[in-house]
C-alpha cells in the first residue's frame, strides 16, 4: 500500500544574500507578504493539503522562526485583556498543534541537498514533502498530493519559464505525458545558457522517497560547489520513478526582490479590505511614472 505523506521538510538555513541588507538580522522567511511572514503562508498551504508535521532545517540567526511557531503568552494575555478576541483566535488558528513542528540545524550552508539530508532522522523511513519556503505557490501542495496518489514514486512541481532564464534553475526533461503530469527522463541543475533540455524549472515543491537520504549522505558536490538536491534526485531516478507536475497557478519567488514585491501586490489585491484602495494607489503611481 502507498504510504501517506505526513511530513514536510522546510529548509530555512540559506543565507538570503539576494535580499541584503533586509536579511542581515531577519531571516528572509520572516519577511512579510501583506501581514503574514512568508513561512506562515507556506505552512498554511501545506496544512490545507493535510501535512501534519513540519520539519524546519534552520541555521544561525533563524531562531525567530521557532518563536513564530510557538505560543506567545504575554501577547495572548494582552489581546484577551483588551477584548481583541478575533486577533487572539486568528493567532491560535495559525499555529500547528504541539508536537507538529520539529527544528534541526544545518550547521553549515552546504546546499539544499545537504539541508534536506539534515532532516533524515526526523523524517525516518517514509515518503515526505520538501517545501522551499521562499517560493509562494498557493494550492500547489494539494495538487502535489493528488499527483502522488495517482503515480506514487517521486513528484516534482515544475513551471515554465522563458528560455533565457533556464540557467538559473534546476531543469527537467519531459517524457511520457499524462495531462497535468509527466514522466521525468532527466534533470540538471543550473545548465549553462543554451543547453537546457526544456523550459520546465523545478519550482520548490517535491515529494520524495526516503531512499534519497542514503544518496545525499555521500555529500557529492555539484553546481556552485554545493550539495545539490537535483543531483541526488537524478541519482535516485536511476532506480525509482520521478514525475513532473505542472503547477496550475503562479509561483512568487520571495527570495528575489522583484518576486517579493509582486507577491505583496498580488496577495494584497486578493484582500477584500485592501483591494480597492491598493488598486487606486497602484494606478496613481503608474500614472505618475
Ligand atoms: P536559495 O539559493 O534560494 O536560498 O536556496 P539562499 O541561499 O538563502 O538565498 P540567496 O541565493 O543567497 O539569496 C533555496 C532554499 O534552500 C535553502 C534556502 O533557505 C532556501 O529555502 N537552503 C539553501 C538551505 O537551507 N541550506 C543551504 O545550504 C542552501
Report on this structure.
34% of the residues lie in helices and 23% in strands. With 289 residues, it is of the alpha/beta class. The chain folds into two domains: 7-255, Spore Coat Polysaccharide Biosynthesis Protein SpsA, Chain A (Alpha-Beta Complex); 256-289, no CATH class. The strands form three sheets. The chain has a nine-stranded mixed β-sheet with strand order 5-4-1-6-11-8-12-10-9. Strand 2 and strand 3 form a beta hairpin. The termini are far apart. The mean pLDDT is 94. Bound molecules: uridine 5'-triphosphate.
Summarize the structure.
This protein has 289 residues and is an alpha/beta fold.
Domain count: the total is: 2
Bound ligands: uridine 5'-triphosphate
The CATH superfamily name of the largest domain is Spore Coat Polysaccharide Biosynthesis Protein SpsA, Chain A
In the CATH hierarchy, what is the class of the largest domain?
Alpha Beta
CATH topology of the largest domain: Spore Coat Polysaccharide Biosynthesis Protein SpsA, Chain A
CATH architecture field of the largest domain: Alpha-Beta Complex
User: What does the average pLDDT come to?
Assistant: 94
Order of helices and strands: EEEHEHHHEHHEEHEEEEHHEEHH
3D shape = globular
Question: How large is the share of residues in beta strands?
Answer: 15-25%
Most strands sheet? 9 strands, mixed
List low-confidence stretches: none
User: Biggest sheet, strands in spatial order?
Assistant: 5-4-1-6-11-8-12-10-9
Q: Percent of residues in helical segments?
A: 25-40%
Q: What is the CA-atom radius of gyration, in angstroms? A: 20 Å
Roughly how many Å apart are the termini?
59 Å
Assign the structural class, choosing from mainly alpha, mainly beta, alpha/beta, alpha+beta, or little secondary structure. Answer: alpha/beta
Number of strands: 13
Q: Enumerate how many helices there are, as a single number.
A: 11
Amino acid at each position: 500500500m502507498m504510504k501517506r505523506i505526513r511530513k514536510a521538510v522546510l529548509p530555512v538555513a540559506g543565507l538570503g544574500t539576494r535580499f541584503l541588507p533586509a536579511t542581515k538580522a531577519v531571516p528572509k522567511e520572516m519577511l512579510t507578504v501583506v501581514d503574514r511572514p512568508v513561512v506562515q503562508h507556506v505552512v498554511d498551504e501545506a496544512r490545507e493539503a493535510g501535512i501534519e508535521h513540519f520539519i524546519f532545517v534552520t541555521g544561525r540567526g533563524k531562531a525567530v522562526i521557532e518563536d513564530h511557531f510557538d505560543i506567545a503568552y504575554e501577547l495572548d494575555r494582552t489581546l484577551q485583556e483588551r477584548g481583541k478576541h478575533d486577533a487572539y483566535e486568528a493567532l491560535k488558528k495559525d499555529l500547528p498543534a504541539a508536537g507538529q513542528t520539529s527544528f534541526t540545524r544545518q550547521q553549515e550552508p552546504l546546499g539544499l541537498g545537504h539541508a534536506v539530508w539534515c532532516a533524515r532522522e526526523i523524517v525516518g523511513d517514509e515518503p515526505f514533502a520538501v517545501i522551499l519556503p521562499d517560493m509562494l505557490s498557493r494550492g500547489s501542495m494539494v495538487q502535489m498530493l493528488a499527483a502522488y496518489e495517482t503515480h506514487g514514486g517521486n513528484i516534482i512541481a515544475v513551471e515554465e519559464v522563458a528560455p533565457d532564464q533556464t540557467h538559473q534553475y534546476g531543469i527537467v526533461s519531459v517524457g511520457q505525458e499524462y495531462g497535468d503530469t509527466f514522466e521525468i527522463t532527466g534533470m540538471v541543475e543550473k545548465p549553462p545558457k543554451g543547453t537546457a533540455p526544456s523550459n520546465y524549472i523545478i519550482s520548490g515543491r517535491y515529494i520524495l522517497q526516503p531512499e534519497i537520504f542514503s544518496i545525499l549522505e555521500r555529500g557529492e558536490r555539484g553546481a556552485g560547489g554545493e550539495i545539490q538536491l537535483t543531483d541526488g534526485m537524478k541519482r535516485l531516478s536511476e532506480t525509482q520513478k520521478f514525475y513532473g507536475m505542472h503547477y496550475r497557478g503562479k509561483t512568487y519567488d520571495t527570495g528575489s526582490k522583484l518576486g517579493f514585491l509582486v507577491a505583496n501586490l498580488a496577495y494584497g489585491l486578493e484582500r477584500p479590505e485592501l483591494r480597492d484602495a491598493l488598486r487606486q494607489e497602484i494606478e496613481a503611481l503608474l500614472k505618475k511614472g
